[in-house]
Each structure stands twice: as C-alpha cells, then as structure tokens.
Amino acid sequence: MLNDAVAPEIVPAAGSDKDAPLKEDIRLLGRLLGDVLREQEGDAVFNVVETIRQTSVRFRREADAGAALELDAMLKELSREQTISVVRAFSYFSHLANIAEDQHHIRRRRAHLLAGSSAQKGSVSFALKKLRMAGVPRKTVDTFFQDALIAPVLTAHPTEVQRKSILDAEHDIARLLAERDLPQTPKERQANLQLLRSRVSTLWQTRMLRYSKLTVADEIENALSYYRITFLRELPGLYDDIEDDIAAEYPNGDGTIVPINAAYVQMGSWIGGDRDGNPNVNAGTMQHALARHATTILDFYLDEVHALGAELSVSTLMVGVSAELQALADQSPDASPHRSDEPYRRALIGIYARLAATARALGATNILRKEVGAAAPYPDAAAFVTDLRTIVASLESHHGAALVRPRLATLARAADIFGFHLASLDMRQTSDVHERVLADLFAQSGVAADYTSLSEEDKQALLLSELAQPRLLYSPYIAYATETDSELAILRAARDIRQRYGARAIRNYIISHTETVSDLLEVLLLQKETGLLRTDWKAGGDGDSSCELMVIPLFETIPDLQRAAGIMSEVMALPLVKQLIAKQGQLQEVMLGYSDSNKDGGFLTSNWELYKAELALVSDFQKAGVKLRLFHGRGGTVGRGGGPSYEAILAQPPGTVNGQIRLTEQGEIIASKFSNAEIGRRNLELLVAATLEASLAPQAANPAHASELAQFEAVMAQLSDLAYHAYRHLVYETPGFTEYFFSATPIAEIAELNLGSRPASRKANQRIEDLRAIPWGFSWGQCRLLLPGWFGFGSAIEAWIKQADGAAQDDRIATLRAMYAEWPFFATLLSNMDMVLAKTDLAIASRYAELVADQGLRERIYKRITDEHGNTLRCLELITGNTERLAGNPLLARSIQNRFAYLDPLNHLQVELIKRNRALSSASKVDERVHRGIQLSINGVAAGLRNTG
Where, by residue number, is the active site (predicted)? Predict the structure, then answer.
C-alpha cells in the first residue's frame, strides 16, 4: 500500500493494459502516502501499518485463519497513538484510491471519445441515435427539451463525513494527477510530483473530523463548493454539448444549430429549508441560504463579465455594432476616452456595475473588484440575460460569431439556468407540525376548540371553508405557541425571498408523512395565512385562485405508498385544487420516499410498492388530465433507493417520467458524484440521457408483451408479500433485535459524530421506528452487512418456488429467469442487490456481532442473518446464472476485491475501539483518543464503500 515494493498488491495482477495507468496512479499515491507517513510519524509507525496491511491482504486473499488471529492480536496491542495513526493511514488510502479510480474513469471515457465512440451508452448522443433509429422526429426532441425539467436536488443528511478542507485538498490531488496524463518535460513532471507530495502532506496534517457540531450554515457552504467545482461551468457546458449532439443526429438543411431557449436542467436544494426533524432550520436559515446562493452566483457572473471585458476589445474603427449594443454602451458609467471606440467593453463595464449593485442589494458583502461607477441594480435575472443577448446578437450580426461561444454564450446560458437564486430551495416539514399549528390558530380564533380530534371528513370541511373565507385566522395581538410563530415566520420569509430573489428561489413545499387529504389542505391554508395563496373560488369551480408554492405530498412508508394514488385522486377532484393545478400548467408533483419505505418494509417490498404507487399515480393523473412529475427521494446506498441513476430512471414504469423528474442527491454521494468536474458533468449527462430515453423511446405494446408483464407483476406481488413478512419478522417482531442492532453496529457512535445538523433519531430513544432511515442504513454499511440492501429476498424466492410441486418448481424458476432477462425493473433490482452483496462481508460482520454481550441473543440473530444471506446468494445465482458477484461489471468487481484488503483493517480497528469505548463508558470514563479513533474509522470505511457507505 505504501511503497513501491508492495504497490502491485493494490490492483489485480491480471487484466488488460488499459488498467495499467490506474495501477500506476495508485502505486504513486500509495508511495507518497508512505513517504509522508514515515516522515511525519517515523519508521516504527510505518512498519506497523505495513505489517497490518500485509497480514490483512493475506487474510483477504488466502482466507488464512492464522492471519485473522495475527491481525486481531496486533490490533489489540496498538497504543492509543499508534491506533490513530494506523486508522488515518488506511482512511487516507481509501480517499486516495477513490481519486485514482475517478481519474481512470475519466481517462477511459476520453479514450472512447478519441477512438470516435462518442455515442456511448448513457450519453445524450447515444440516446438521440436510439430515438432517431426508432423514428422519433426532430420536432419531438425539440419539444422535449423546451418542456422538460430535470432537477438534481442536493440534500444534507447525516452521512456526509467529509470536511470541506479535506475535499479541497483532494480536489487539488485529482487535478495534479490528471496533469500527469498530459505531455510533460522532466522538470514539469518533477514539479508535479513535488506538488502532489505537498498536497498529500497537507491532507495528512489537516484535521479529518469536525470537533464541533456541524451547523446548517456549514452544510450550505459545503454544498456551494460543488457549484464552484462543477455545476457553474459544467452545466452550461453540457447544454452546449447537447445542442451539438442534436445538430449532429438531426441536422437541419442549412447545417445551423437551433438553440434551445429553456432551462431544462435546474438545480435544487433542501439545505436551509428542510425542517423535518431539524430544529436548527428556521426563517433565518432560509434567508441565509438564499443570500449565500445569490452571493455565489453573482460572484461567478462578476468574474465572467470582468473576463469578457478583457476579451472583447472589438473596436468600431474595425467593425460596426448594433444600435441596441451602442445604446447599452452609452448607458455605461465608463467615460474613459481610451475606450470610446470599444462599445463592447463599455457595455460590459456597465453590466458589471449593475451586477455589483444587484449583489449588494441581495446580500453580498465582499465584492472583490470595485465597479467603475454607480449603476442601478437589475430588477431580475431576465434583465441581465437581455443585456447579454444584446451583446450576442450584435456580435453575430457583425462578423463576431466566433467570439460568442467561448465564454459569452456560456455565461448567458448560466444566467438562464441559475438566475440570481442559483438553486431552488425546497421547504419541507412534517404533517404533524402543520396540524399542531392550525390547531393553535383554530383554537385561539374560536373557530374550532380541538381541531386534532376532528374526523378526516370534518377536517376537510373546515379547511375548505376557511380557505374560502376572506379573513385570516391569525391576529398579531394574540400570543401563540412558539412553534406556531416559528412556522408562520418561515412561510412569511418564503414570500419575502420570492419577491427579492425571484419566483424560482422557492417554489415547492413538501409535506413529510402525508397520510390524508387534509395534510395537503393544511399547507394551503397556512399559505393563505401568510400571503402566499390568494383564493377566489366557488363550489362550482369558478374563480381565479393562485398559490405561490406548489404543495407536494411525500409518501414514505409502505402504507403511505399504498394510499398515495387514492389521496391524490381525491385532492385533485376538489374545485379549489383544480384551479391551483391549472395555474401550475396542469402539472402536479408527488414525492416518493425510498429510505423510509425500505426501513419500514425491506428492500424488495420497498421497490415493489414504489413501482405500484407510480403506476397507480400515472393512471389516476391521466384520468384527471393532470401531468405528473415524480420527485424521487433516492439516497446514496441501495438500501436508501440508490444505485446507478441511469439504470434506475430507465427502469421506471412506463409513463412516469415524461420529461419531468426531480431526484435527491444525498449526503456522501454528492461528493462521490460532483467533487470532480468531469465526473460531475458525466453524471449530469446521465440524468439527461436517461430522462430523454425514458420519455421518448417507444414502448413495446404488443399483446404478448403486455400479458407477460402482467404475469411478472403478479409474481412480484407474491414475492413482495413473502419478503415483507421475512423482513418485518426479523426487524420489528424478533425479541431482542433492537438490542442486537444497537450493540452490533456503530449506530451509537454515528449519532455522536459531527456529521450534520440533523439528529440521527426523531426522538431520544432506542426504538428503530424512531430512528432516521439514513443512519439506519449507514450503520449496516459500517459493519459490512448492508442488510437493508438484500434481506428478505432469499426467503421470498425460496418460499415462492417451494409453493409449487414437482415440475412446476422448474416453471417458476424459468419465470424468474425471464423476469430478469426481459423486465428492466427486476433486472435493475437484482443488479443493485448484486453490488450490495459484493460489498457484504460476513467475516467482518461476525467481529461486530461479538460486540453483543448476550451470547444467546448474538448467536440466535446472527444465525438468522447469515442463513438469509446464504439463501439470497443461492437464489440470486439461480436466477442470473452468475456464481460470481458483479460478473457483468468486472471493473467494479476488481476494484472491490482489491480495495477491501485495505478496508478490512479499519473495520477490525473500529471493533476494537468500540469495545474499549463501551468498556470505558460502562465505568463512566471517557477517552477522547478512543472516541476520535472510532470517528476516523467511520470516515475511512464510508470512503472505502463509496455508494454503500
């Protein structure tokens, strides 16, 4: 791991030459880390790390039981100081290996492009080629891009273990590593190596963990760093590439490119607006979030306009300009005679002055370059775009088209996408809070003494009656509950933010735990109380009502998903809601929760209930004449709805995409996808390509296919029922399981880690029901069982096959194989589970089981888990025919196989440290070094597991 002599162990000896650069990069980074370790900590520590590494490799590769005993004995003998150094060494190796792998993915993609393979699977060009060959006309493609909305939404969840300082250092290492693929002189290569060594040294000397609780403001800044790294430049650049791809695949007669004047990919955020279970989010955090959003995007615009001013030195002595451009130049505060013949520069100086004034008006406090003179702020981003397009039009009509594309067109595109708000901030709160707030308002106003005790029918009647009233419930002269004042203040802040930053700044209000129609009506009434909803409606449906925030139900648990379509059908039939949906362009969004449904019902049932809910929603929305937009609350891990986004979108039921999709990017996955600009761009392209293909690719519609699909769905329903009972029986009905979980995973230690501003549990107890789904899945990943990603599958398949007799069992096996071969939903489900099982390790998990003090409980539950694991492997192999994990993805299989030899020591150390920590806790003692070692190991394991951490 740490020097040239042993570096070949890091990557497989077998494989084609195309993996050689990856081997070289890991060898280089491993050697540099070893040099730094020896220099900073001394030869003794270096030798301890090397011995542990070699023993772990022997244990992993040779299944050497003696090596396991040696490793255990070595780890127990480590001093506290040695333990920290060893944990840090293996953690940083995981981080450096990730950087090398990312760079190799970029390298391989470029190799394909250089070979002329631009239409790779997952690219927009590939999707366009597929659509053209299927007979989809250019007009349909153009309409798609004009009407589409594809929105990744960044969220802060308590599994993001990276500090921004660490991310910045790693970003530099990735950049320097990429430079080594370019031609370099010996002196340049040596300079590059010295810089790499310095960055690795910086990494080693930088505190990996936060020693104070992460605030919402910290989470906002962390998220904004990805805009600077990736989104601000790569998203507009992707638009340019897509226009080129369309022109290449669907050329016009004259060869010109028709620009798409629509922001079909937009960014969203929950950070600062998501209050569900987070008492740290309030009106102030929302206002702070938008101020920081605006500052970030305006800083970018100011830098780009300044650069354009230097580039566009065009003189009217050489070429003419449009009247509109000349007028823009004449409005500039720049009166320098040196630029009297340079109208583009004068115009840009005026634009810069207006942007600087806008930035100050919107909360920016530090504008690095002072403007030449005073100017009025822009009223909105559209006015800024108009000025930029004036420059574009003048250049294009006066022999300057070549000057547009490098920077100006991209800036204009960015202004279309990001406005002055950067990203739309979603608001989210749980339905219980809305009910309590309205109960307070109703009681204080004398309208209803006990709203919460009313039946659902009576609640709806009361809410609709109040929505029709011209007066408000709220009075400034009454003392309300603190929660009531806070929630109303948040909605008033949303109204002010929209007026200040534009309508796209906040436009969605998500209701967690939506269970009834009244849950949606309550939020409409709260909007009316705060000036966000204006009602003018009659029972017959006449009137002119409008609502500033779309009210979006979030269906999370299995029962919620089963009720989703019925609730939406009922609410869309209400006259007032019909009016509001019409004002929304006959569009309504529904959010589906993945992680909570998984925690509630298990992997198989969660996926099936989501699939069924989507189909039912599509049907009911079509009947109502309303366009459905689904918001997928996907997480990072498979157990949280994660896995490859491209395959997941293509596996959606027919009719559920239609050019409209939002999906969350959660926690640690944001760094994995977007901390490298080129990989970030590729991930954004995958979203667009999958949405395009899922929306426009013709669906097979022959009767045989339809009947076969119906058979598959019927089988899936039976499997889901069997898997649900197996999962629920273990997690919620087995005596002692909760004790086992809290003992055999590092959940207690994760709750103490300064990962995010949100508590790990909704309530201060040890009930799995109240534990948030994110740390639930994160804990299972740390102990290498990853139980939420597979448990219940084996029991379901085995039981379903055994329900038949004799030859009929063979028929059932054949049906399962057909489902895998022909049904994208089932194939994607098994592919994701295959990946999870490849990362599951029972030998490591058994070490964590030893943390359970009650031997009988430990053996009883661990045996059930391992038995189910064996069943799941056998059943997966029976269906797919693959006896090896990740047979279809050998690159990932090699990565996992070789990475885990270096991840194992972290798990072994984590177990040892947890034992020490819990022994100290039982004696009412605290050892900060032990505590710190556990937290460092959590960071390292999460980095090593990546999308299943």
Answer: 157, 599
First-to-last alpha carbon distance for the chain, in angstroms, is 22
Single-letter amino acid code for the residue at 771: L
Give the span between the Cα atoms of 878 and 802, in whole angstroms: 14
The three-state (H, E, C) secondary structure of 95-134, written as one string: HHHHHHHHHHHHHHHHHHHHCCCCCCCCCHHHHHHHHHHC
| Residue bearing tokens 């003696």 | 66
Say if residues 293 and 497 touch (Cβ distance below 8 Å). no
Say whether pTM exceeds 0.85: yes
Q: Return d(Cα 720, Cα 508) in angstroms, integer.
A: 33
CA distance 148 to 640: 26
Q: Nearest-5° angle of CA 909, CA 913, CA 918?
A: 150
C-alpha 541/C-alpha 577 separation (Å) is 9
| pLDDT tens string 728-762 | 999 999 999 999 999 999 998 887 765 554 555 55
Mean pLDDT computed over 785-796: 95
Q: Which residues contact 156 (CB under 8 A, 6 or more apart)?
A: 216, 219, 222, 223, 270, 271, 274, 667, 756, 757, 758
Q: Is 583 exposed, middle or buried (0-12, 13-18, 19+ CB in 10 A)?
A: middle
Q: Please name the residue ranges forming H helices in 227-267.
A: 232-249
> Burial of 253 by CB count in 10 Å (0-12 exposed, 13-18 middle, 19+ buried)?
exposed
User: What string of DSSP letters covers 361-373?
Assistant: HTT----SS--SS
> Minimal CA–CA distance to 790: which of 743, 746, 845?
845
Active-site choice (421, 459, 578, 599): 599
Q: Is 23 a catalytic residue?
A: no
- Between CA 92 and CA 200 the distance in angstroms is 9
Rounded Cα gap, residues 684 and 544, in angstroms: 38
Please report, rounded to a whole number, the percentage of residues in the chain having pLDDT higher than 90.
66
157 is catalytic: yes
**DSSP per-residue letters across 856-884:** HHHHHHHHHHHHHHHHHHHHHHHHH--SS
Distance CA 279, CA 281 (A): 6
Condensed to tens digits (0 to 9), the pLDDT of residues 363-405 reads 877 788 888 899 999 999 999 999 999 999 999 999 999 999 8
Catalytic residue selected from 157, 434, 612, 725:
157
